[in-house]
Every structure is written in structure tokens, then in C-alpha cells.
Amino acid sequence: MKIGILKEIAGDRRVALLPENVKKLQMMKVSLLVEQGAGENAFFSDQEYIEAGAEIKSGGQIRGEA
Fold first, then answer.
1. CA 61, CA 14: separation in Å to the nearest integer?
2. Which residue from 39, 65, 42, 63 is spatially nearest to 51, judged by alpha carbons?
């Protein structure tokens, strides 16, 4: 199973998934795609998601547009 995490709307500081939860989902055989910069407003870097095991993609790639 794959889950895609997109950026929240402008002005929203939340992110749908924290890097620490990426590891938990991977143990359940779930692949995660995170939009580039999705965690920035919540103070999580793309590198933190990568280190947790997620792939960083553009929003279009996650939505299947590119």
C-alpha cells in the first residue's frame, strides 16, 4: 500500500503525518510519498522524512499528474 502526504493549504501549520510515524507505517508494509516541503510549516524537514524512510516527491507526482 502507498500513502501520499500533501502540503496543507496556505497558512496552515499542520502536517498530516510526522516523520516518527513514517517508521511505524513502514513496519506495516506501507510506502510513503511526502510532498516536498510538506512538513516545513510544522518544523519538519524533508531530510527528516527521508531518514524515516519516506520518498520526497512533487505534489504532481503524488497525485499522478507528472
1. 21
2. 39
